[in-house]
Amino acid sequence: MSDKGQKRLRPKEGPEAFKDRVIGKPIDFIPRKKLPVRRLILQRVRSLRAQSNSDKEALLKPDKTANEIARIITLEITEIWERAAIPCRRVDKVQKLVQKCISELSSLMKNWSIHDEGRDPLQSYMSSLDKLFDISPADLYHKLKTSGNPEWIEDWMFYEGQCSVPQAGSMAGRDKLLQERHQRRQDRELQAEARRQKEAKGQPQAVKRSVSKKTVTSQDVDLGAPGYYLREVPQTNYDESEYVYISILHSTI
Question: How far, in Å, CA of 30 to CA of 33, rounded?
Answer without folding.
Answer: 9
